[in-house]
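Per reviewer request, we include the raw input and output of the structure prediction for the construct analysed in the revised manuscript.
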Amino acid sequence: MKTETYRTNKYLVLVPHRDIRVELQKKCDSAVKAGLKAQFAGVYPFPRVIPLASLSQSLNEGELKQTACSLRTHIGKNKIIAEGDAISDFPCNEKELTLCGAGLDVVIPKDIFKNSGKKTSYIFPSIVIGCFLKPKDNTKLNIFCEAPQEKLSFRAAAVANMYWRSFQINGEIYYKWKIGKLCWLPHP
């Protein structure tokens, strides 16, 4: 068995409250069980987090706290609503991938990342709660567009560093990830 490891990528992610992540997991599991298995060929699971930016190095605790405060100020008292299918480019070193999941009704301004200085190398243009990664072809998986769907919403969320590693075993690509220490957004 030959294993080839690629470098670790670092991302700044927004982690929704556990209740939302559990609901998303249920929806993804039911979609796979509902006969969409052929649709998921060549698709990889993704943690139920929202990638915000690709980082050249991890943010320290102070930078995470500043980012959490800036996000709370921008979002205010409003709930973030997740509904419908969405896709976003996912920069990775071995091939171009698309992140698929539930779209969010919030736009994150670029000035939120000013406190991270030169550590931010890429800002995600679309805000998506990740569920699956697939080869880039701009098609959605249609998991969250089935009617009737209840809207998922949350106020409680945290920012964190996510460490993403891809590796290859006998020609197959696999992914591992780890979410760093959570820094919760302050109460509105």
